[in-house]
Amino acid sequence: MKALITGISGFVGQYLEQLLTLHSIPVIGTTRIKRKEKNWLPLDLLSEEQIVLLLKMVNPSHIFHLAGISNVKYSWSGRKDVMEANTIATINLLEAVKKVNKRIRVITIGSSEEYGRVVKSKVSENEPLNPISPYGISKAAVSMLSQLYYMADNLNVIHVRPFNHIGPGQRLGFVTSDFANQIALINTAVLQSQKINIGNLDAIRDFTDVRDIAAAYYDIAVCGNAGEIYNVCSGKGTKIEEVLEIFLSFSKIPIEINKDKSKLRPSEIPVMIGNNEKLISKSNWKPKIALEKSLHDIYQYWLSKYLL
Q1: Alpha helical stretches, state H, 78-130
Q2: What CATH number matches the domain at 175-204+237-269+289-307, 2.40.30.60, 3.90.650.10, 2.40.400.10, 3.90.25.10?
Q3: Looking at residues 94-122, what average pLDDT do you find?
Q4: Given 8, 260, 280, 289, which is the most exposed site by the fewest CB atoms within 10 A?
Q5: CA-to-CA distance for 111 and 161, rounded, in angstroms?
């Protein structure tokens, strides 16, 4: 394997690079702007011509297409940006692969947001798509594009739908980072107030550690079938309120909770739990990192930022 990771500087990209390197796999990554890392190359994914030139130069056997915008809340105010970064960029990539080398295995990244509101307790890959956010729509389009390019052009494409993934290094704007950051600010006395702002605590989500997500992407790249879609998830639902309670247990200072309406989304999915049986039956993958460890590592990550 020789891997190309688009969006390598992002949250999942850096963990995936570490994992592939441990497997002695050569890795080239792309970023929006030039970076100091020798194996990270600047690439505008809105330029099909640039992608074609890069593919000819790098000659990867596998592409992990991680680049894009992943913030659901931002997608409501940045709808055009999200469609360009997620959907148009994917079309450009798949068109370039079609022109350069159809044998390249492409892993496109979707989201549980593609499913939208569902009735079933656990969502499997054949559930009809009903996205209710601009982000979810952009990723549903990517899912359909992967199927189109597989069926119409015989591209070696696999689409994955990760559910909520968390871990140290995730930026603010995501629930676990936002909770951990505020609690760390209070415990290091950077923030004088002993109050944290929270949004909806009633939602139930399926959380998986980013290190397990990266392992799943690798296993899918190796074992998955072209043209297929795989959920990547723990298969367990956790209420956001429980996540907050675990974070608060790490605090040495009593903390007051303040509900902040600005943190609520225009449209919220109440329950989203995935069925991971298809992936588990196809590979040796299973989530290994417990939720409590993930949350502790996230808290330590933010705490360390303020203790320097």
Answers
A1: 79-82, 89-100
A2: 3.90.25.10
A3: 95
A4: 260
A5: 4
